[in-house]
Amino acid sequence: MELSSHTETSFETSPDSGALSGTDERQAVRLWLRLLGCTHRLEQALGQRLRRGFGTSLARFDYLAQLQHYPDGLRMKTLSRRLMVTGGNITGLTDQLLADGFVTREVDVKDRRSHIVRITPLGLATFECMAVAHRQWVGSLLAGVPEGDRRLLHHLLGGLAQSLDNLPAE
């Protein structure tokens, strides 16, 4: 895979609306589909490796990855927002991880309607083993992309993320 050494910074726009031209809209959709396809394939490969290597799912890995940064724990609602899943999904994952001894769940003393979830020492040790393997797997999955292109792609996607962060609320 080789990325262009330059980026297109201007788009042909309609004078009235500021919208992309038909050609640019088609290219934007093609780019979006390419991003989705790559993300899907990476998630599938990592999910399969986590299942084979650790008997766990990518969702459980992501959940523990969030908690390992917060030794004092997180509210379940915060976890739901960070992982971009429903409260019901977080409850199900929490129940599974609680049964495995990887997390604790306690009523939040500041808000009795909320629960705080914390990673246990067993959960942290398990996550750290998975994280080492995960980093190696990601490295091997992206090994076919030259280092310079990975850096450029990271930079370009950072610009996309910033652009999306700056979109007006609708």
Automatic annotation (TrEMBL):
InterPro entries, per database record: HTH_MarR-typ, MarR/SlyA-like, Tscrpt_reg_MarR-type_CS, WH-like_DNA-bd_sf, WH_DNA-bd_sf
Domain HTH marR-type: 28-162
Zinc found in the keyword field: no
Name the UniProt record assigns to this protein: MarR family winged helix-turn-helix transcriptional regulator
Region (Disordered): 1-21
Organism: Hydrogenophaga atypica
Key words, A-Z: DNA-binding, Transcription, Transcription regulation
Biased composition regions of type Polar residues, renumbered to the chain: 1-16
Record-linked SMART domains: HTH_MARR (SM00347)
